[in-house]
Specification:
It is built from 16 helices and nine strands. By secondary structure, the chain is an alpha+beta fold. Among the domains are: 139 residues, no CATH class; 91 residues, no CATH class. It has a nine-stranded mixed beta sheet with strand order 3-2-1-4-5-9-8-7-6, with helices on both faces. A hairpin with an 8-residue loop joins β6 and β7. The longest helix is centred in the C-terminal third of the chain and has 25 residues. The radius of gyration is 26 Å and the shape is elongated.
Amino acid sequence: MAYSSTVFNQLLRMIPQKQFSEAVALSGANRYTKHFTAWSQFIVNLYAQVSGKKSLRDVEAGLRVQQSCWFHLGLKNISRSQLAYVNSRRDSKLFQGLFYRMLDRCLKEAPQSKFRFNAPLKIIDSTLVFLCASLFPWARYRKTKGALKIHTLLDFQGTIPQFIVITHGKKHELKVARQLARPISPDSILVMDKGYMDFGWFNDLHFRHITFVTRAKECLHYEILGQQPCGKDRRLIADQTVRLKVWASRQLYPNNLRLVTWHDDERDHTYTFMTNNFDLPAQTIADAYKARWEIEIFFKWIKQNLKIKTFLGTSPNAVMTQIWTALVYYLLLSYIKFQTRYAFSLLHFTRVIHEALFLRTDIIELLKLSPLRCKWPREPDGQRCLFNLQEFY
C-alpha cells in the first residue's frame, strides 16, 4: 500500500505551524492576501532550498510539475512574480521567529555533551557571506564586493546554533558578541578566537561566573605570579597564573588569568590558551578550545549545502528571508536526525531528501533504506523467453 503523503509534506508537519500562524496573525502579514499567504511563501522558499533551485523560474516550473501534490501541501497558486513580491515586502522577522521556535524543539532532542563535566559549552564566532556589490549595493563591503556577516553562538550539545544575528559585513564581531552572550547561563564555558579579546568584556563574563577560553595574543604583556605542576603529560608545557602588566588593561580586568601552554601532537603546533578558570584540568581547557572547530565545520556546511550564497532576490528583506529559511531547514534536518538516531551524516540525509522530496513514502522507512535490503526486480516472462529464443538461434 502506497503512503498517502509525500516526504515534503511530512517535513512540513514537523514545523510548529500553530505558533507560526499566531505570529502571522499578530503581525498582520496576511492582510489583504487572498492566496499567497505567509505559510505558502515559506513552503515555496523551503522547496527552493531543499531542491536547490537557482532562479524564480526554476522554482515556478518545478512546482507546476508537481501540481498534483499541491492539495497535500496546501498551495493554491504559484507564480514567480508573487514570490518575488512577497519576499521583498513581507517582513523576514516572521521566519526569524520560526527559526527560534524550531530551535526550542531541537534543543530538547539534542544528544548529550561529549565532555565529562556538566558545564554547558558554547562557541561564538562569525563568518562572511560575500555578495556582488552591483546587485546588492546596500551590502557594500569593498569596492567590488558586498558582504553579510552571520554571528553565531553554537551549542556544542548537538552542534546546533543557539543564537544567530545577521548584520552588515562591516559590523565588528565584538559588538554583536556582547549581545549574543547575554542569555548564557552562569557556570557555562564560552570558547572564542583571539579576535574577540576585550578585557572589559572578559571582566563582565568573569563577574557573571562564566568561564571564557581563548588564545592569548603574542603581544600580551603580563607578569607571572605562580605556576602549577605540569604532571606526567608531555603535551602540557606550562600552566601559569599571571596578571596583566599594562595599566590600562589591568583597569579593565583586575583579576588574575591562567595561561595554559599546550602542544598539539596532531598538528605539531604549540598553543597558549587564556582562561579565568583555575579549577579545570589543563587538558580540559585544551579540549574545550579544540571544540571551537565545530563552529568552523558548521559555517562550512551551511555555505556548501544550503543556498545562502546565491539568492532569488536582491532586496535586503528577500536575502534575509532566504537565509532564515535555510537555517530553519538545517534545524529541521537536525531535529529528524536527533529523533531517529540517523547513523549517516547530515550531508547524506540532505541528498536523500533531495531525491525523494515528492515520493509518497514514509520518511522513517526512507531513512532505513539500505542497498542490502533492496531486492532486484524480476524480469517479465516475455522478456526472458525472447532472450532464450535469441540465444537458441
